Each structure stands twice: as structure tokens, then as C-alpha cells.
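[Discussion] Sanity-checking designs against the backbone

I'm trying to build intuition for which residues belong where. Below is a C-alpha cell string of 124 positions. I'd appreciate it if someone posts a full sequence so I can compare it with mine line by line.
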């Protein structure tokens, strides 16, 4: 029987799995890119949103899918709700919670879509 993992050990295992899965896929996910993606997401201010593509471009990621993967596997402590699809919609499985969190910050949606012209984050 294996001993239970501590939180820190579980975190390191998740990070290692992310790197191993991306190895050889052309995604070039490494520790540095992972941390850059996390830093960009963390810097999206309250009351604004960014797209996965915006975050990927700022972090130097080859594809917005890497941003989604980082948020899914290691984004629990980030303002993940401020990252949307390119058309201003949340992922269907997160829509209710994500739109509620955005609404609490003053970001209003028209149905399921946030007006990116109005609420998109524009870093300097």
C-alpha cells in the first residue's frame, strides 16, 4: 500500500505529468512557460477578461490550448474565470460558475457571451 501524498508532492506529480504529456507533441511545455502562463493569468485585473489566445501571446505559448491545459491542471489558485474563448464565451462545463464570478466583478454578459470590446484586458 502506498502512503498518501502530501499537497506538495501531489503538486509536483501533476506538474511532472504535464511536462511528460507534452513531451514530443511540439507543444514545448516546460516549467518556465508554465510559470509564465500562470503569471499572465494572475495579472488579469478584476473587472476585465482575456482570451486564451491573449494569454498565450503574452506568455509566448505556441497555442492557446496550452493555456487551457495549465488552467485545468494547475489553475485552482488563479483567477481562471477571467479567461474566455475567443468569441467571449466560457467553456460550457464552467459557464454558470464562471459567469457568476465575472458578474460579481462587474463584467456583464449578454446571455452566455461577454462583450470583449468592452471588458477585454489591454495590458500596456
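Best answer:
Here's mine. Compare freely.
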Amino acid at each position: 500500500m502506498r502512503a498518501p501524498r502530501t499537497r506538495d508532492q501531489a503538486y509536483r506529480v501533476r506538474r511532472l505529468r504535464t511536462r511528460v504529456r507534452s513531451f514530443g507533441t511540439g507543444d514545448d511545455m516546460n516549467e518556465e512557460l508554465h510559470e509564465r502562463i500562470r503569471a499572465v493569468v494572475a495579472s488579469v485585473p478584476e473587472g476585465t477578461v482575456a482570451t486564451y489566445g491573449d494569454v498565450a501571446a503574452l506568455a509566448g505559448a505556441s497555442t492557446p490550448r496550452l493555456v487551457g491545459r495549465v488552467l485545468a491542471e494547475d489553475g485552482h489558485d488563479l483567477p481562471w474565470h477571467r479567461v474566455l474563448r475567443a468569441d467571449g464565451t466560457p467553456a460550457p462545463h464552467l459557464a454558470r460558475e464562471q459567469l457568476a464570478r465575472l458578474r460579481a466583478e462587474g463584467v456583464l454578459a449578454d446571455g452566455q457571451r461577454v462583450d470583449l470590446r468592452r471588458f477585454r484586458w489591454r495590458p500596456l
